[in-house]
Amino acid sequence: MLVVAAMLMMSVLVGKAGSRFGMPALLLFLGVGMLAGVDGFGLHFDSAFSAQFVGMIALSIILFTGGLETRFSDIRPVLVPGLVLATVGVLLTTGITGVFIYYVFHWLVPEHSFGWIESMLIAAIMSSTDSASVFSIFDSAKLGLKQRLRPTLELESGSNDPMAYLLVVILIGIMEGNGHHETTGDLLLHSSVTLVVQLLFGALGGLCSGYLTVWVINRLRVDNEFLYPVMVISCVFFTFTLTELIGGNSYLAVYMAGLVVGNKRLAVRRTITTFFGGFTWLVQIIMFLTLGLLVNPHELLQVVVPGIALGLFIMLVARPAAVFVSFIPFRGYTLKGRAYVAWVGLRGAVPIIFATYAVVSPGVESSSFIFNIVFFITILSLLLQGTTVNAMARWLGLSVPVKERAFNGIDISDDIAATTRELEITSGMLADGNTLKEIGLPADVLAVMVRRDDSYIVPKGDTRLYMGDVLLLVSTAGDGEGA
User: Fold this and answer.
1) DSSP 396
2) Long-range contacts of 390-397 (CB under 8 A, 24+ apart)
């Protein structure tokens, strides 16, 4: 318990310190795990099975929370390009990177002269962007982006893991002999059918589970509101496991379930979302600490040269090519917007977890080399791309200022047919008088609080208002737009 407490506390402290310098917190969590390992404080951990299990649980929570916090109204305009990037983009990244590995690694690391299947396996492991990294960096940076780039990237990172996972599983199955067929045509047909079935059943399983979760939560009557998040966690794990049993993709299912739950009327929503916000950070820290413990840093020295070559190729060639080709049909993104999407192709925990599938498979040779190079490229990606998310947006002229809410943490239960919003007082509103009753709020809109600098005031009709004051308004759902 002392070791766990020290590692968790150290992770939070270095994450807070690193954020001041633009360092991704998740990279620092990895560093804490590596520091505590055999080459640091001496903690010994070498179970790829355990790391894979921890990663599976953590990813299910992370993806569900990503869907829970995503407004469908935000992603609806970018639904098609986001999904194309999450599917076609992953396939293109895998293909381009696999060709590079096959030809270049024969020269860089002749002792690991990978064949086509092994090359494509490494490429598939590295093909998806990491939802945990993207969500956490955007949340920490409070970054506003033009051209709906943020919802595009969040949708892609939350939905492209299933495609990469399927490719990894199919390729490992081929190497183990489970996917052996008489002809290449049979192999492609079998893989295509598996891909479609997994995606279809995963989406259907997630949708059904999401609606069922909403139904259960809204009809569950318990005295303690903190039991509701526990019920939601059980629904997440049911979604993951039952979808797997019916042949669907579990990662897609939990993301879809979160998307449904987050966009439907939900009892005690604030309690559930607050709980999952903290719980997600906890599982992310545990996951990255575990993965950091799993690697032996001295072994990474053997993959520095091929790791840098492959990492830079993915960042500068494979990912940009996949993005620009995937976005050909879509005119809503400028050249700078496409370049930014290409750059924010962060690698994180997901590729490392996928690499553990190769480690535990008896049919994959050089699995230790594959794991180490994937780990190295993840660190390289977080260092180069993760630290420049803000700077790249500003350099390309795509960032917009994000104004923080004056009344954080105030919301109304979904059971009440009312909404809250903020209204900043301008000079035009004070033209006919400077008291609350003189600014002309509609009759069904109530001002319940005034924020003035760092002070909060409960207003009355004769309360004097000044430019820059922010009113917290409560109105009937859908009304009050004229205020």
Assistant:
1) T
2) 390/22, 390/141, 390/143, 391/22, 392/340, 392/343, 392/344, 393/143, 393/145, 393/340, 396/336, 396/337, 396/339, 396/340, 397/336
pLDDT on residue 258:
94
- Residue 90 CA, distance from chain mean position: 16
Return the structure tokens found at 70. 């995503």
Residue 156 tokens, joined:
């892609």
Which residues, 6 or more positions from 374, have their beta carbon under 8 angstroms from its beta carbon? Answer: 122, 125, 126, 351, 352, 354, 355
Write out pLDDT tens, residues 32-88.
999 888 888 888 888 889 999 999 999 999 999 989 988 888 888 999 999 999 999
Cα of 400 vs its chain's centroid, Å: 21
**Closest among 392, 385, 383, 370 to 126, alpha carbons compared:** 370
Q: Is the pLDDT higher at 476 or at 157?
A: 157
Q: Among 211-215, 334-338, 382-386, where is mean pLDDT lowest?
A: 382-386
Q: Rounded to an integer, what distance in angstroms lies between the CA atom of residue 324 and that of residue 85?
A: 10
Provide the CA 203 distance to its chain's centre, in angstroms. 18
Contact 120, 90 (CB under 8 A): no
The dihedral of CA 264, 267, 270, 276: what is its sign? negative
pTM: 0.84
Averaged over 116-126, what is the pLDDT?
93
Whole-angstrom distance, CA of residue 227 vs CA of residue 235: 13
Q: Which residues are CB-neighbours of 262 under 8 A, at least 6 positions away?
A: 67, 68, 69, 70, 71
d(Cα 392, Cα 346) in Å, to the nearest integer? Answer: 13
**Is 18 a residue whose pLDDT tops 80?**
no
Express as a percent the part of the chain with pLDDT over 90. 39
**What gap in Å lies between CA 192 and CA 233, rounded to an integer?**
32
Type of residue found at 313: F
